[in-house]
Design goal:
Protein name: Actin depolymerizing protein
GO molecular function: actin filament binding
CATH superfamily of the largest domain: Severin
CATH topology of the largest domain: Severin
InterPro entries: ADF-H/Gelsolin-like_dom_sf, Gelsolin-like_dom, Gelsolin-like_dom_sf, Villin/Gelsolin
Number of helices: 7
Number of strands: 17
CATH architecture of the largest domain: 3-Layer(aba) Sandwich
Strand order of the largest sheet: 2-1-4-5-6-17-16-15-13-14
Distance between the termini: 26 Å
GO biological process, one term: actin polymerization or depolymerization
Strand content: 25-35%
Largest sheet: 10 strands, mixed
Shape: globular
CATH class of the largest domain: Alpha Beta
Helix content: 10-25%
Radius of gyration: 24 Å
Length: 397
């Protein structure tokens, strides 16, 4: 089926008859920017002015700074906003730090059990932060189940914990309880080939059914820590487990025991996890990883254009395959690039209000038609002149 069928119908995008007429208008930007200047989280003197990594968690509809010592730790019951600002040299400039400009990437990260109000607040505040940065940021939506390579690259020690903060409509208990609760951490390599060196730490249900012979697990019982090494685990996963144990034992001095699945003594870990009746010799320990990789082969690269140059909004394929390049992007329109793995939206400086207003609906429909691959496809939006390295790498891949 042609790419525009089922995605675009002219009558559907008569934006003058909808409530989006003012979206991306000068008034709209002024109102959003004014709102952003009153947000304490952005107005700390460094956001937008200095390179660095900044993280906030959504709590009771508020944007609350995340402690730096917890950077890389995320709770599956929460939503977060992550800002990464870095200096880059623009074309023709010398290697002079004073002349380099800041390029910003904003990620709003949605935990698998975050509430709708938290997710909505994170999305709204991400747009607000972009307005505060004068529309110079690349916006990314991150799902816990399928982190993008760009996000994983920021956190080589990414750790996903259960629980979360209280929200306006729901309350999720955190794992910071007065009494000790057994904690089971699963340690495994990132499933993406692009980040094959990244090893993730994910808190899982403390039951023997969570064990998998391909990975390493750390069981914290409060008075003792066990490390269970699956018989097919990698040296990198063993090393990461040692780092995790070191972090756990800094705060409390407890004994640690490292056990290989092949050892008969490893049955003690299975027993502690409720598997007293499990035969560790005949049982195959298998459990799906909480973060999956790509479920389908890489798609063919495609470039589409959203334009109203002919008087009606259209969504047409411009190119496909490896021939896509920088020269294919026209500053008077909005483009959708399917890199074969991720979807990027590029907004030209001269794009019309209508083009800027409808891209989100087109992206939603496009990703929705990717079938099983949709859940593992990340979406990012960039503005002409503020593209980061990741975008151009996707274009020129």
């Amino acid at each position: 089926m042609p790419p525009n069928q089922g995605l675009v119908h002219a009558k559907e995008y008569d934006w003058r008859d909808s409530n989006v007429e003012l979206v991306n208008s000068e008034l709209d930007h002024k109102v959003k920017h004014q709102s952003a200047t009153t947000e304490p989280a952005w107005n700390n003197g460094t956001v937008g002015a200095q390179p660095g990594l900044y993280i906030w968690r959504i709590e009771q509809f508020e944007v609350v700074p995340w402690p730096k010592e917890k950077y890389g730790q995320f709770h599956e019951g929460d939503s977060y906003i992550v800002l990464h600002s870095q200096q880059v040299k623009t074309d023709g400039e010398q290697e002079d730090e004073a002349n380099n400009k800041l390029v910003h990437d904003i990620f709003f990260w949605l935990g698998s059990h975050t509430s709708q109000d938290e997710a909505g607040t994170a999305a709204y505040k991400t747009v607000e932060l972009d307005e505060y940065l004068h529309g110079a940021a690349t916006q990314h939506r991150e799902l816990q189940s399928a982190p993008s390579d760009a996000f994983a690259a920021l956190f080589p020690r990414l750790k996903i914990l259960r629980g979360g903060a209280s929200s306006g409509f729901t309350h999720v208990e955190t794992n910071e309880e007065p009494e000790h609760v057994d904690t089971l951490l699963r340690i495994f390599k990132h499933p993406s080939a692009a980040t094959r060196d990244a090893v993730l730490v994910h808190e899982v249900e403390p039951t023997w059914k969570s064990l998998d012979e391909d990975d390493v697990f750390v069981l914290d019982k409060g008075d003792k820590i066990f490390v269970w090494q699956g018989k097919k685990c990698s040296p990198m996963e063993k090393l990461k487990a040692a780092q995790v144990v070191n972090d756990l034992t800094i705060a409390k001095h407890v004994d640690t025991e490292v056990l290989s699945q092949a050892e008969s003594r490893s049955k003690v870990v299975v027993d502690y996890l409720g598997g007293e009746d499990v035969d560790i010799i005949t049982t195959q320990f298998k459990c799906p990883r909480p973060i999956g990789g790509r479920v389908a082969d890489e798609r063919e690269r495609k470039l589409f254009k959203i334009s109203d140059a002919d008087g009606a909004l259209s969504f047409d394929k411009v190119k496909d395959g490896q021939s896509i390049g920088r020269s294919d992007f026209d500053g008077d329109d909005v483009f959708l690039l399917d890199s074969g793995k991720d979807v990027w939206v590029w907004e030209g400086k001269g794009a019309s209000r209508a083009e800027k207003a409808v891209w989100i609906r087109i992206v939603q429909k496009y990703v929705g038609q990717l079938g099983e691959d949709a859940a593992a496809t990340s979406v990012a939006k960039v503005h002409q002149g503020n593209e980061g390295r990741a975008f151009w790498a996707a274009v020129e891949a």
